[in-house]
Amino acid sequence: MRYDLVSLSLFVAVAETQNLTHAARRKHTAVSAVSKRIAELEQQVGTQLMLRLPRGIELTPAGHSLLYHARQIFRNLEQMEEELNDYAAGIRGHIHIFTISAALMHCLPRAISQFLTHYPQTDIDIEEQTGVGVVQGLLEGNADVGIFSSWTPASGIDVWPWQQDQLSVLVWHGHALAARASLQLADLLDEKIVGPHRDSAVSHILEREARRLGRTLSIGLRVSSFVSMAELVSQQLGIAILPVNEIAPASLHRGVRAIPLAEPWAKRELLVGVKAHALASPSVKTLIESLTAANRRGQEEEGSGSVVTLR
């Protein structure tokens, strides 16, 4: 069944003014033309849409339903027009990104910089969140794109693999563990630890694995910034466990050493997610393609024998 946009527009005007004459005046057309269009709509849907009363009109239940859907249609048309006007003006869309701090520390800024090289007039906002906050932002429509780890449950989200990293242990150079080539969580259970944000995925994983060993971690300080964690370690206030691969090497304090955490659960993937790819804007789809294409190139080069470190 096909609906004429002009007829729907006249119907909305009549419903909002509750008067054929007022609607005709608003739409700059004759009352008879408005009345004819409404009658044709009623004939098309096969039921009465409005009651003609002495002092105006009143919508029937079917009329209220049509009004709701007609408004949705016109809102979508307005959104489409605004987006196309942005393209015509050279503005390729607006993207709101929620990301965990690990990605924001290193790999995301570089990826966004590369994207903006090709699409310099795209407007991008970036907001730091915990992994749970990223997924919640996507589900609630507050974020267009999310960057979070594979440790975070993401039911209802379309995701793509992006980067990989592994947890490492930061110790100061004079620490008893500093000479070790790798460490396990059991080696750290008696250590004072500088921990991440309590709601972070890293914190949940560490606490879960410590419980499996029948212990709890001794966390004396909690900070959200990985750079701050490294600074606190350098001051010998504790050791830290964090995805150090995601930190720019220049950001690490000279007084600390990163030792890989040799646990199977210490490896993770960073994911790119959207609520529904099919409904995403062209600019969002272009960004996702840019991010995942870089990951695919890295995997192809690894397969051909080249060693590629993705950060």
The percentage helix is 40-55%
- Determine and state the CATH class of the largest domain: Alpha Beta
- Poorly predicted runs of 5 or more residues: 301-311
State the CATH superfamily name of the largest domain.
Periplasmic binding protein-like II
Structure class = alpha/beta
Note the overall shape: elongated
Strand composition percent: 15-25%
Q: Rg, please?
A: 29 Å
Q: Record the strand order, biggest sheet.
A: 4-3-5-12-6
Number of domains: 3
- Report the mean per-residue pLDDT as an integer: 86
State the end-to-end CA separation.
53 Å
The beta-strand count equals 12
CATH architecture of the largest domain: 3-Layer(aba) Sandwich
Helix count, DSSP H or I runs of 4 or more residues: 10
CATH topology of the largest domain: D-Maltodextrin-Binding Protein, domain 2
Largest sheet: 5 strands, mixed
Question: What's the helix-strand series?
Answer: HHHEEHEHHEHEEEEHEHEEEH
How would you sum up this structure in a few lines?
Helices cover 42% and strands 21% of the residues. With 311 residues, the protein is α/β, with parallel strands linked by helices.
Descriptive report:
The protein is of the alpha/beta class and 311 residues long. It has 3 domains: 5-88, Winged helix-like DNA-binding domain superfamily/Winged helix DNA-binding domain (Arc Repressor Mutant, subunit A, Orthogonal Bundle); 94-164 and 270-303, Periplasmic binding protein-like II (D-Maltodextrin-Binding Protein, domain 2); 168-262, D-Maltodextrin-Binding Protein, domain 2 (3-Layer(aba) Sandwich), CATH 3.40.190.10. 42% of the residues lie in helices and 21% in strands. The protein is built from 10 helices and 12 strands. It has helices at 5-17, 20-26, 31-45, 61-88, 101-105, 107-118, 131-139, 201-212, 226-234, 282-303; strands spanning 50-53, 56-59, 94-99, 123-128, 145-149, 158-166, 168-172, 192-195, 218-222, 239-242, 256-260, 267-274. A 5-stranded mixed sheet has the order 4-3-5-12-6, with helices on both faces. Strands 9-8-10-7-11 form a 5-stranded mixed sheet, with helices on one face. Strand 1 and strand 2 form a beta hairpin. The radius of gyration is 29 Å and the shape is elongated. Keywords: DNA-binding, Transcription, Transcription regulation. It holds the Pfam family LysR_substrate. One of its GO terms (molecular function) is DNA binding. One of its GO terms (cellular component) is cytosol. This is LysR family transcriptional regulator.
